[in-house]
Protein backbone atom coordinates (compact mmCIF):
# COMPACT_ATOMS: atom_id res chain seq x y z
CA UNK A 1 0.00 0.00 0.00
CA UNK A 2 2.96 2.30 0.64
CA UNK A 3 4.79 1.37 -2.54
CA UNK A 4 3.74 4.60 -4.31
CA UNK A 5 5.08 7.08 -1.70
CA UNK A 6 8.19 4.93 -1.12
CA UNK A 7 8.90 4.81 -4.86
CA UNK A 8 8.31 8.56 -5.07
CA UNK A 9 10.70 9.22 -2.21
CA UNK A 10 13.32 6.94 -3.79
CA UNK A 11 13.03 8.72 -7.15
CA UNK A 12 13.52 12.07 -5.43
CA UNK A 13 16.64 10.77 -3.69
CA UNK A 14 17.99 9.41 -6.98
CA UNK A 15 17.37 12.76 -8.67
CA UNK A 16 19.07 14.67 -5.88
CA UNK A 17 22.06 12.32 -5.93
CA UNK A 18 22.46 12.87 -9.68
CA UNK A 19 22.18 16.63 -9.35
CA UNK A 20 24.53 16.69 -6.37
CA UNK A 21 27.22 14.64 -8.14
CA UNK A 22 27.10 16.71 -11.32
CA UNK A 23 27.04 20.04 -9.52
CA UNK A 24 30.19 18.93 -7.70
CA UNK A 25 31.76 17.71 -10.95
CA UNK A 26 31.00 20.89 -12.83
CA UNK A 27 32.23 23.15 -10.01
CA UNK A 28 35.48 21.18 -9.66
CA UNK A 29 36.13 21.38 -13.40
CA UNK A 30 35.37 25.09 -13.46
CA UNK A 31 37.84 25.70 -10.63
CA UNK A 32 40.57 23.97 -12.62
CA UNK A 33 39.80 26.15 -15.65
CA UNK A 34 39.63 29.22 -13.43
CA UNK A 35 43.11 28.54 -12.07
CA UNK A 36 44.48 28.24 -15.61
CA UNK A 37 42.94 31.57 -16.60
CA UNK A 38 44.26 33.19 -13.43
CA UNK A 39 47.81 31.82 -13.33
CA UNK A 40 48.40 30.51 -16.86
CA UNK A 41 46.81 33.26 -18.95
CA UNK A 42 46.80 36.10 -16.39
CA UNK A 43 43.35 36.94 -17.72
CA UNK A 44 41.19 38.62 -15.12
CA UNK A 45 38.08 38.75 -17.32
CA UNK A 46 38.00 35.01 -18.00
CA UNK A 47 38.86 34.27 -14.37
CA UNK A 48 35.92 36.36 -13.19
CA UNK A 49 33.56 34.73 -15.70
CA UNK A 50 34.47 31.22 -14.54
CA UNK A 51 34.16 32.27 -10.91
CA UNK A 52 30.66 33.56 -11.69
CA UNK A 53 29.74 30.23 -13.29
CA UNK A 54 31.01 28.41 -10.20
CA UNK A 55 29.01 30.64 -7.85
CA UNK A 56 25.87 30.18 -9.96
CA UNK A 57 26.19 26.41 -9.62
CA UNK A 58 26.75 26.83 -5.90
CA UNK A 59 23.43 28.66 -5.67
CA UNK A 60 21.67 25.66 -7.22
CA UNK A 61 23.36 23.22 -4.83
CA UNK A 62 20.87 22.81 -1.99
CA UNK A 63 21.36 21.19 1.41
CA UNK A 64 18.64 18.68 0.49
CA UNK A 65 20.81 17.44 -2.40
CA UNK A 66 23.89 17.15 -0.21
CA UNK A 67 21.95 15.19 2.42
CA UNK A 68 21.09 12.54 -0.21
CA UNK A 69 24.78 11.99 -0.96
CA UNK A 70 26.03 8.43 -0.40
CA UNK A 71 29.72 8.42 -1.28
CA UNK A 72 30.51 5.00 0.30
CA UNK A 73 27.63 3.42 -1.59
CA UNK A 74 28.41 5.06 -4.95
CA UNK A 75 29.76 2.42 -7.39
CA UNK A 76 31.21 5.17 -9.58
CA UNK A 77 33.85 6.24 -7.06
CA UNK A 78 35.86 3.08 -7.71
CA UNK A 79 35.79 3.37 -11.49
CA UNK A 80 38.75 4.75 -13.42
CA UNK A 81 40.35 4.67 -16.86
CA UNK A 82 44.05 4.77 -17.82
CA UNK A 83 43.52 8.08 -19.65
CA UNK A 84 42.31 9.65 -16.39
CA UNK A 85 45.47 8.70 -14.53
CA UNK A 86 47.90 10.87 -16.47
CA UNK A 87 48.00 14.11 -18.44
CA UNK A 88 50.60 14.87 -21.10
CA UNK A 89 50.42 18.68 -21.12
CA UNK A 90 48.75 21.73 -19.62
CA UNK A 91 46.66 21.92 -22.78
CA UNK A 92 45.34 18.43 -22.09
CA UNK A 93 44.38 19.41 -18.54
CA UNK A 94 42.40 22.37 -19.88
CA UNK A 95 40.75 20.36 -22.65
CA UNK A 96 39.78 17.45 -20.41
CA UNK A 97 38.21 19.74 -17.85
CA UNK A 98 36.30 21.70 -20.48
CA UNK A 99 34.77 18.38 -21.54
CA UNK A 100 34.14 17.43 -17.92
CA UNK A 101 32.19 20.61 -17.24
CA UNK A 102 30.24 20.39 -20.50
CA UNK A 103 29.17 16.81 -19.77
CA UNK A 104 28.11 17.66 -16.23
CA UNK A 105 26.12 20.66 -17.47
CA UNK A 106 24.32 18.46 -19.97
CA UNK A 107 23.29 16.12 -17.14
CA UNK A 108 22.13 19.08 -15.05
CA UNK A 109 20.14 20.40 -17.99
CA UNK A 110 18.25 17.13 -18.56
CA UNK A 111 17.68 16.07 -14.94
CA UNK A 112 17.16 19.68 -13.93
CA UNK A 113 13.94 19.66 -15.96
CA UNK A 114 12.53 17.41 -13.22
CA UNK A 115 13.65 19.77 -10.48
CA UNK A 116 13.88 23.41 -11.62
CA UNK A 117 13.24 25.09 -14.95
CA UNK A 118 15.74 27.78 -13.93
CA UNK A 119 18.48 25.19 -13.39
CA UNK A 120 17.74 23.41 -16.66
CA UNK A 121 17.74 26.62 -18.70
CA UNK A 122 20.79 28.03 -16.91
CA UNK A 123 22.81 24.84 -17.40
CA UNK A 124 21.97 24.86 -21.12
CA UNK A 125 23.11 28.45 -21.60
CA UNK A 126 26.24 27.90 -19.54
CA UNK A 127 27.11 24.82 -21.63
CA UNK A 128 26.89 26.82 -24.86
CA UNK A 129 29.16 29.47 -23.37
CA UNK A 130 31.65 26.77 -22.39
CA UNK A 131 31.85 25.56 -25.99
CA UNK A 132 32.97 29.02 -27.08
CA UNK A 133 35.25 29.38 -24.08
CA UNK A 134 36.94 26.06 -24.85
CA UNK A 135 38.01 27.32 -28.27
CA UNK A 136 39.22 30.55 -26.71
CA UNK A 137 41.16 28.87 -23.91
CA UNK A 138 42.86 26.24 -26.03
CA UNK A 139 43.53 28.58 -28.92
CA UNK A 140 44.96 31.17 -26.53
CA UNK A 141 47.13 28.53 -24.86
CA UNK A 142 48.59 27.26 -28.14
CA UNK A 143 49.23 30.73 -29.51
CA UNK A 144 50.75 31.90 -26.25
CA UNK A 145 53.16 28.96 -26.47
CA UNK A 146 53.85 29.75 -30.12
CA UNK A 147 54.68 33.37 -29.29
CA UNK A 148 57.37 32.23 -26.86
CA UNK A 149 58.94 29.65 -29.22
CA UNK A 150 62.45 30.24 -30.51
CA UNK A 151 63.67 26.88 -31.84
CA UNK A 152 61.67 24.87 -34.35
CA UNK A 153 62.75 21.44 -35.58
CA UNK A 154 61.57 20.34 -39.03
CA UNK A 155 62.12 16.60 -39.36
CA UNK A 156 63.49 14.69 -42.32
CA UNK A 157 63.12 10.93 -42.89
CA UNK A 158 65.31 8.84 -40.62
CA UNK A 159 65.30 5.33 -39.21
CA UNK A 160 66.02 6.99 -35.86
CA UNK A 161 63.34 9.66 -36.22
CA UNK A 162 61.63 9.17 -32.86
CA UNK A 163 64.92 8.94 -30.96
CA UNK A 164 66.31 12.08 -32.63
CA UNK A 165 63.14 14.06 -31.92
CA UNK A 166 63.16 13.00 -28.28
CA UNK A 167 66.81 14.04 -28.02
CA UNK A 168 65.95 17.46 -29.44
CA UNK A 169 63.04 17.75 -27.00
CA UNK A 170 65.41 16.98 -24.15
CA UNK A 171 67.54 19.83 -25.45
CA UNK A 172 64.57 22.18 -25.22
CA UNK A 173 63.29 22.52 -28.79
CA UNK A 174 60.01 24.47 -28.71
CA UNK A 175 58.24 23.13 -31.80
CA UNK A 176 58.54 19.95 -33.85
CA UNK A 177 57.16 19.71 -37.38
CA UNK A 178 56.73 16.22 -38.77
CA UNK A 179 57.67 16.47 -42.47
CA UNK A 180 57.34 13.33 -44.58
CA UNK A 181 56.67 13.38 -48.32
CA UNK A 182 56.75 9.74 -49.38
CA UNK A 183 55.88 7.26 -46.61
CA UNK A 184 52.61 5.31 -46.59
CA UNK A 185 49.83 6.95 -44.61
CA UNK A 186 49.74 4.10 -42.11
CA UNK A 187 53.38 4.79 -41.25
CA UNK A 188 52.78 8.54 -41.14
CA UNK A 189 49.87 8.13 -38.74
CA UNK A 190 51.87 5.86 -36.46
CA UNK A 191 54.89 8.18 -36.35
CA UNK A 192 52.79 11.33 -36.02
CA UNK A 193 50.98 9.80 -33.03
CA UNK A 194 54.28 8.90 -31.36
CA UNK A 195 55.80 12.31 -32.02
CA UNK A 196 52.74 14.18 -30.74
CA UNK A 197 52.81 12.22 -27.49
CA UNK A 198 56.52 12.97 -27.07
CA UNK A 199 56.09 16.68 -27.80
CA UNK A 200 53.28 17.00 -25.27
CA UNK A 201 55.31 15.05 -22.72
CA UNK A 202 58.01 17.74 -23.03
CA UNK A 203 55.45 20.59 -23.30
CA UNK A 204 56.40 21.42 -26.89
CA UNK A 205 54.14 22.06 -29.88
CA UNK A 206 53.61 19.40 -32.54
CA UNK A 207 52.92 20.46 -36.14
CA UNK A 208 52.24 18.31 -39.21
CA UNK A 209 53.60 19.40 -42.58
CA UNK A 210 51.05 19.70 -45.43
CA UNK A 211 48.66 16.94 -44.35
CA UNK A 212 45.66 18.51 -42.67
CA UNK A 213 43.93 15.13 -42.47
CA UNK A 214 46.77 13.56 -40.51
CA UNK A 215 46.96 16.60 -38.22
CA UNK A 216 43.26 16.14 -37.39
CA UNK A 217 43.56 12.37 -37.02
CA UNK A 218 46.33 12.54 -34.42
CA UNK A 219 45.17 15.72 -32.65
CA UNK A 220 48.22 17.77 -33.65
CA UNK A 221 48.64 21.32 -32.40
CA UNK A 222 48.62 22.57 -35.96
CA UNK A 223 49.64 22.22 -39.58
CA UNK A 224 52.25 23.88 -41.77
CA UNK A 225 51.31 24.74 -45.35
CA UNK A 226 53.58 25.43 -48.30
CA UNK A 227 52.77 27.87 -51.08
CA UNK A 228 51.24 25.11 -53.23
CA UNK A 229 49.11 23.61 -50.45
CA UNK A 230 45.41 24.24 -49.85
CA UNK A 231 44.13 27.74 -49.01
CA UNK A 232 44.30 28.54 -45.34
CA UNK A 233 40.56 29.13 -44.93
CA UNK A 234 39.92 25.62 -46.26
CA UNK A 235 42.45 24.18 -43.82
CA UNK A 236 40.78 26.01 -40.94
CA UNK A 237 37.37 24.68 -41.91
CA UNK A 238 38.78 21.17 -41.51
CA UNK A 239 40.92 21.85 -38.45
CA UNK A 240 38.52 24.09 -36.53
CA UNK A 241 39.48 27.34 -34.81
CA UNK A 242 41.95 26.06 -32.21
CA UNK A 243 44.93 24.52 -34.07
CA UNK A 244 47.79 26.65 -35.35
CA UNK A 245 48.25 27.13 -39.09
CA UNK A 246 51.62 28.25 -40.46
CA UNK A 247 52.76 29.12 -43.98
CA UNK A 248 56.11 29.05 -45.78
CA UNK A 249 57.13 32.35 -47.38
CA UNK A 250 60.11 33.27 -49.55
CA UNK A 251 59.41 36.88 -50.54
CA UNK A 252 57.31 39.93 -49.58
CA UNK A 253 54.39 38.97 -51.83
CA UNK A 254 54.10 35.56 -50.18
CA UNK A 255 54.33 37.18 -46.77
CA UNK A 256 51.50 39.55 -47.67
CA UNK A 257 49.35 36.59 -48.71
CA UNK A 258 50.07 34.88 -45.36
CA UNK A 259 49.17 38.06 -43.46
CA UNK A 260 45.95 38.51 -45.42
CA UNK A 261 44.83 34.92 -44.84
CA UNK A 262 45.57 35.12 -41.11
CA UNK A 263 48.52 32.75 -40.72
CA UNK A 264 49.43 32.15 -37.09
CA UNK A 265 53.14 32.11 -37.97
CA UNK A 266 55.37 32.04 -41.05
CA UNK A 267 58.66 30.59 -42.16
CA UNK A 268 61.04 33.18 -43.64
CA UNK A 269 63.61 31.88 -46.09
CA UNK A 270 65.49 30.04 -47.28
CA UNK A 271 68.14 32.27 -45.76
CA UNK A 272 70.79 30.04 -47.35
CA UNK A 273 70.47 27.57 -50.21
CA UNK A 274 69.38 24.18 -48.87
CA UNK A 275 68.73 20.71 -50.33
CA UNK A 276 65.36 20.58 -48.54
CA UNK A 277 64.19 23.29 -50.96
CA UNK A 278 65.74 22.29 -54.31
CA UNK A 279 65.49 24.97 -56.96
CA UNK A 280 64.77 27.73 -54.42
CA UNK A 281 67.24 30.59 -54.50
CA UNK A 282 68.44 31.83 -51.13
CA UNK A 283 66.36 34.76 -49.88
CA UNK A 284 69.29 35.98 -47.83
CA UNK A 285 69.37 38.49 -44.99
CA UNK A 286 67.42 41.08 -46.97
CA UNK A 287 64.21 39.11 -46.56
CA UNK A 288 64.99 38.47 -42.88
CA UNK A 289 65.34 42.22 -42.32
CA UNK A 290 62.11 42.79 -44.26
CA UNK A 291 60.33 40.34 -41.92
CA UNK A 292 61.66 42.23 -38.90
CA UNK A 293 59.88 45.34 -40.17
CA UNK A 294 56.75 43.85 -41.72
CA UNK A 295 55.75 40.51 -40.15
CA UNK A 296 53.03 41.01 -37.49
CA UNK A 297 52.94 37.35 -36.44
CA UNK A 298 55.59 35.03 -34.95
CA UNK A 299 58.12 33.92 -37.57
CA UNK A 300 61.13 31.68 -37.92
CA UNK A 301 64.09 32.07 -40.24
CA UNK A 302 64.71 28.83 -42.12
CA UNK A 303 67.04 27.40 -44.72
CA UNK A 304 70.57 26.10 -44.24
CA UNK A 305 70.84 27.41 -40.68
CA UNK A 306 73.39 25.70 -38.45
CA UNK A 307 75.65 26.55 -35.52
CA UNK A 308 78.18 28.28 -37.79
CA UNK A 309 75.74 30.91 -39.03
CA UNK A 310 72.89 31.11 -36.48
CA UNK A 311 74.49 34.09 -34.73
CA UNK A 312 74.45 36.07 -38.00
CA UNK A 313 70.78 35.12 -38.57
CA UNK A 314 69.90 36.24 -35.05
CA UNK A 315 71.84 39.47 -35.48
CA UNK A 316 69.89 40.16 -38.68
CA UNK A 317 66.81 40.27 -36.46
CA UNK A 318 65.35 36.75 -36.53
CA UNK A 319 63.43 36.06 -33.30
CA UNK A 320 63.72 32.30 -33.83
CA UNK A 321 65.00 29.69 -36.26
CA UNK A 322 63.73 26.53 -37.90
CA UNK A 323 66.36 23.83 -38.22
CA UNK A 324 66.47 20.62 -40.25
CA UNK A 325 69.84 19.00 -40.97
CA UNK A 326 71.81 20.62 -38.16
CA UNK A 327 69.73 18.66 -35.64
CA UNK A 328 68.50 15.68 -37.66
CA UNK A 329 72.05 14.77 -38.71
CA UNK A 330 73.79 15.70 -35.46
CA UNK A 331 75.72 13.15 -33.45
CA UNK A 332 74.37 14.74 -30.27
CA UNK A 333 70.97 16.30 -31.04
CA UNK A 334 70.35 17.24 -27.41
CA UNK A 335 73.57 19.23 -27.14
CA UNK A 336 73.15 20.88 -30.54
CA UNK A 337 69.60 21.94 -29.64
CA UNK A 338 70.83 23.43 -26.36
CA UNK A 339 73.45 25.42 -28.26
CA UNK A 340 70.81 26.79 -30.64
CA UNK A 341 68.65 27.78 -27.65
CA UNK A 342 71.55 29.65 -26.07
CA UNK A 343 71.56 32.08 -28.98
CA UNK A 344 67.97 33.09 -28.20
CA UNK A 345 67.96 32.96 -24.40
UniProtKB/TrEMBL annotation:
Residues 64-85 are annotated as: Disordered. It comes from the Bacteria. It catalyses: 4-methyl-5-(2-phosphooxyethyl)-thiazole + 4-amino-2-methyl-5-(diphosphooxymethyl)pyrimidine + H(+) = thiamine phosphate + diphosphate; 2-[(2R,5Z)-2-carboxy-4-methylthiazol-5(2H)-ylidene]ethyl phosphate + 4-amino-2-methyl-5-(diphosphooxymethyl)pyrimidine + 2 H(+) = thiamine phosphate + CO2 + diphosphate; 2-(2-carboxy-4-methylthiazol-5-yl)ethyl phosphate + 4-amino-2-methyl-5-(diphosphooxymethyl)pyrimidine + 2 H(+) = thiamine phosphate + CO2 + diphosphate. Residues 130-345 are annotated as: Thiamine-phosphate synthase. GO terms for molecular function: thiamine-phosphate diphosphorylase activity. 2-[(2R,5Z)-2-carboxy-4-methylthiazol-5(2H)-ylidene]ethyl phosphate binds at residues 274-276, 304. Condenses 4-methyl-5-(beta-hydroxyethyl)thiazole monophosphate (THZ-P) and 2-methyl-4-amino-5-hydroxymethyl pyrimidine pyrophosphate (HMP-PP) to form thiamine monophosphate (TMP). This is Thiamine-phosphate synthase. It comes from Leptothoe kymatousa TAU-MAC 1615.
Amino acid sequence: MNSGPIAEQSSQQVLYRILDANLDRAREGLRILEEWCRFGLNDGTLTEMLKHFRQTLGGWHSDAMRQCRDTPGDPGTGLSHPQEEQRDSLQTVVQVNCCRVQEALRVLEEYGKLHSAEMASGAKQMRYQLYTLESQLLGHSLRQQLAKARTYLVTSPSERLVAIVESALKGGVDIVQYREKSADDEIRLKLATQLKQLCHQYNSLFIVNDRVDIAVAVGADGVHLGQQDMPMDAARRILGPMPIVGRSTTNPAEMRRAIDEGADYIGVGPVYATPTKPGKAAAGYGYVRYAVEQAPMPWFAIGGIDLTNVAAVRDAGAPGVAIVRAIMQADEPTQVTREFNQYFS
